[in-house]
Amino acid sequence: MEQFKATTIIGIVHNGKAALGGDGQVSLGNTVVKHNAKKIRVIANGKVLCGFAGASADAFTLMERFEDKLEQYRGNVSRAAVELAKDWRSDKYLRRLEAMLAIITEDNAMVISGNGDVIEPDDQIVAIGSGGMYALAAAKMLKKYSDLSAEEIVRESLMTASQICIYTNDKISVEVIEK
């Protein structure tokens, strides 16, 4: 049975601002079933941005678990991410979930995977989903060679991915956190 896939999330912490964006496409196999899905959530009273890629129901489950961990660890994002990754890797039910989370705060960017990984890239750019690596390449170049804001880099990177990846469209939503 085919699963719904929700793909292409990119985030960056840049020049005192943090932005996380996603395209709107949801695919079932090789068919587009939705064009304007919102894959970014503002959580923790506006202090954390969370995006997902992968099977939609799995991603929502993981986002809810992450929010629970944030509450449990009083807003400590790094600790909540590590604890979620530990649960994800060891729990029989969670282990079968097929999704990834991208987390952005005003200071940090990280990816949480089902392999028990919490990855914090040195350049504070995160990308997940089928078009993630296209968006990541664009964001790295835009950060290095332009004066664009965090929001503009995210938007342009997603537009680039939408022109290359068949699972990414140009119906983009971006959320921003400022220090």
Write structural notes for this entry.
- By secondary structure, the protein is of the alpha+beta class.
- It has a single domain, classed as Aminohydrolase, N-terminal nucleophile (Ntn) domain (Glutamine Phosphoribosylpyrophosphate, subunit 1, domain 1), CATH 3.60.20.10.
- It has 4 helices and 12 strands; from the N terminus they run E-E-E-E-E-E-E-H-H-E-E-E-E-H-H-E.
- The chain has helices at 56-72, 77-90, 132-145, 150-164; strands at residues 4-6, 9-14, 17-22, 26-28, 31-34, 40-43, 48-55, 99-104, 109-112, 118-119, 125-128, 173-178.
- The strands form 2 sheets. Strands 1, 4, 5, 6, 7, 8, 9 and 10 form an 8-stranded antiparallel sheet that branches.
- Strand 8 and strand 9 (109-112) form a beta hairpin.
- The relative contact order is 0.25.
- The model has no long low-confidence stretch (mean pLDDT 90).
